[in-house]
Amino acid sequence: MEGAALLTWDRVDSPVVKEYRVFSGAVSGRYTTVTNVGNANELPIENLKEGSTYFFAVTCRTRDGVESAFSQEFRYKVPVTTPITNPPPVHLPPTLNITGNTNMLEDLPFELQIQLKDGDTAASNLVVFASYPEGSVFGKNPIVLTGSGEYRTLRLMPATNAFGATDLSLSVTDGTTTNTHKIHMSVVAVDDAPVLADLPNLRLRPGESSGRIALGILDPDTPPNRLKVWATCADPNLLPAEALIMEGVPSVNATLQINAPADALGISAIRVGVADDLSTNWTSFQITVEPTNTPPVVDMKSIEWGYVQTTIRLSVDVQDDGVPLSPGKLIYGWSLVSGPAQVLMSATNTASVGVLFGLPGRYVLHFDVSDGELSAWKECIVDALPALSAEVHALEMNRRRNDPSAPHILEFDVVSISDSSLTVSWRTDTACDGRVEWSEVGALKPARTPPANQWTTQHSVTLQDLRPGKDHTLRAWSRNLSGGEQLSDPLIVRTLNRIQLYQPLPVPQATLTAPLIFGRDDQGLWGVTPSADLPAGAGEMSLSFGAIQPGNYNLWARVRPGPSMSFPAAATLDATDLAFDASNATPNGTGWIWAPLLPIGQDRRPLPLRIESGEHQVLIGGFGPGMILSDLILTMDPDYLPEDIMPIAGLLSPAGLDTPILVRALRQGWSLLANPFPLVMALPGASIPNAPPGTEIHRLGGRNSDVLSISYDGIDWSGEMRLDFRQAVRVFNPSSEPLSILLNGVESTDPTPTSLPAGERLFTPNQLKGGLLRDLMPGFVFKRGDTVKRIDRVTGETLRTTYNGQGWDVVPALNAGEAIILDLVPR
């Protein structure tokens, strides 16, 4: 046998000692083994023979390699041990302990926790197995045993819909002995909810029937005649209740048939439900009702050539029928078919792509578009010419600017205008690119629109996000394919002022889907009679109004929600779906609420609606008991939050109004307005509800001179005046806050004059709307020397703009309700 020992020594107290070495041998002073132990002060020694004597000595060495003399020698004799004989061990069988509930519910899994013990065998070497009698409530479901140590887990699932009692046999073995336990298990019956199979999404054409759709219903606990089955559409306007027909016996042969109305169009969800006495189950699927799909139509605006290392923009016009409704958008793609090199493309998933060619040569590019079902494509050929050096390009551009062959810009004019945007157009004598330089009058540096990168002779650019009531200077820029450039003479035009339109609701034309008491309340307002016990969605209210000028509007509705504080279920403006936003509603403490109508899917402040001039229709449906609408406000002011109709209360009669009220906000300074209605307007009256002290009104007489003036001192007006049809007043607003002027009446049906005698006269359009003067006087031909006079906001004097036979010094545009003075040359 062999022994072992641990040799230790004291460290040398010196910083220069680096390491220790241990010398050993079987004869004193003659050492046969040397061990370097580093900076340690001990050394375990093994494999020593029992009864043998060993001698040890230690030295230390410095960092410089100097080694000390041997330490005092240590002598050690290994003792001899006597072996002890033990009796053979007694083998102990494994044991197991079970925790967990042995009662379980029908159709639900359960598990037991098992703890193993064995005094002789490691828990990881124990094997656990379990079994149950054939034909028991567990059917043929497998027993799952997990774990590998002291703790194991048993998981088991009863057979479907089975319940009752059985014994479970659980055993553990260590390979020599086995220990088995019998566990009594009980599966408690529960009522199974009816099962309804999933249904696939469905598409129908308007007027088409789905035929009978089989419903997979299973309920092992309930007789079929006691099951209830029904179906509803999330959008009853798309598929009313009578369009969903249930037939047959549930869980036997139940079917659903969907008959799409001839005028149905949209996407919604069908929800099918089944219930027994205790529980209910549902399934839903998407229903799409849309006409037959036709493929998109592609018109490519091709460019025949361009320069290498210069971006060329390729564009297409795509027309589509909007079908299918889902995904509801077109998917674009551009790719290179052939060419001498690869190209770089920007935004290949749009209808317009910028292309950068790497090498000269002919390239073929492919465009495709898909509506999700059908697709179309076009290809174009572009010849890429060699790039010019920077120096040559600069010289060439300078030469072409002074070359008479540079493009000519013709008929540069403003074609449409609103409070925040305007569109200009021009034409060129050759195919050119184009853009617009513009600025507010007085700005230090003009802004530029990006080049259109479309080579054409007809050009149109729209400027957005302009400030209302500001003069803007505009110049057109064009460049032809040879690089020649031209900048037009400037145009000056003033954007329109913002307006606000108040619309009392007329007698509604209700489309009823249930018996409905729909009439005036005690205030003469229209809605559902509060006592009517009716479901939501019982009627619709349709309202038409005329937009006075194009622009971005916010739409507000004055609502009394009713006892349930609910709002109408749906609304549309023309083809735009809207929703009442209760979170942004502005209560006034009387039960009435001003609520914004937002585009579907938005949840913050009212988003601007782009509304063009002309007639529009608001449709509001889904009224509940006690729900009333009284007024609508269209406003161009994004910060306007209505509180009540108090500013216009003086204009309301007990029976309400049938015509809209235009609210003009006059900025600080002078304005010229006229009465556009064939009636007498009393001023100030209710037409000026918020006049600040110092407000002045001057009525114009013959030759447009002041013949009557009144003013407001903050308490009373100094007098009153009557304003006849097309008679004008100059109004002075001393405050920095806008002054509201309310205009209400029926527009004149007189045709707009197409000719007028020479001389000076006041002019106001027959229609109460704003826009370019030529659009407000259709058919009238201006001559060289004709002059338009508008009032200067600061001085109150008239500002002139003259027609030179081709254009105006300042393009004349009128705000709704504004008057001008025409000074015409002889015809």
Short description:
The chain has 827 residues and is an all-beta fold. It contains 2 helices and 64 strands. It has 7 domains: 2-77, Immunoglobulin-like; 95-188, Immunoglobulins (Immunoglobulin-like), CATH 2.60.40.10; 195-289, Immunoglobulin-like, CATH 2.60.40; 297-387, Immunoglobulins (Immunoglobulin-like, Sandwich), CATH 2.60.40.10; 391-494, Sandwich (Immunoglobulin-like); 499-658, Sandwich (Jelly Rolls); 660-827, no CATH class.
Question: How are the secondary structure elements laid out?
Answer:
Blueprint: E1 2-8, E2 17-25, E3 33-38, E4 42-49, E5 53-62, E6 74-77, E7 95-99, E8 103-105, E9 110-117, E10 127-131, E11 144-146, E12 151-156, E13 164-173, E14 178-188, E15 195-196, E16 202-204, E17 209-214, E18 217-218, E19 228-233, E20 244-247, E21 255-259, E22 266-275, E23 280-289, E24 297-301, E25 305-307, E26 312-319, E27 331-338, E28 343-346, E29 352-357, E30 361-370, E31 375-385, H1 390-401, E32 409-417, E33 422-440, E34 447-448, E35 456-463, E36 471-480, E37 485-487, E38 491-494, E39 499-504, E40 518-520, E41 526-528, E42 540-547, E43 551-560, E44 570-573, E45 576-580, E46 586-587, E47 593-599, E48 609-611, E49 614-621, E50 628-635, E51 661-666, E52 669-674, E53 681-683, E54 696-700, E55 706-711, E56 721-723, E57 728-733, E58 739-744, E59 759-763, E60 771-772, H2 773-776, E61 787-791, E62 798-802, E63 813-814, E64 820-824
Parallel strand pairs: 8-14, 16-23, 25-31
Antiparallel strand pairs: 1-4, 2-3, 2-5, 5-6, 7-9, 9-12, 10-13, 11-12, 13-14, 15-18, 17-21, 19-22, 20-21, 22-23, 24-26, 26-29, 27-30, 28-29, 30-31, 32-33, 33-34, 33-35, 33-36, 36-37, 36-38, 39-50, 39-51, 40-41, 41-50, 42-49, 43-47, 43-48, 43-50, 44-45, 44-49, 45-47, 46-47, 51-58, 52-57, 53-56, ...
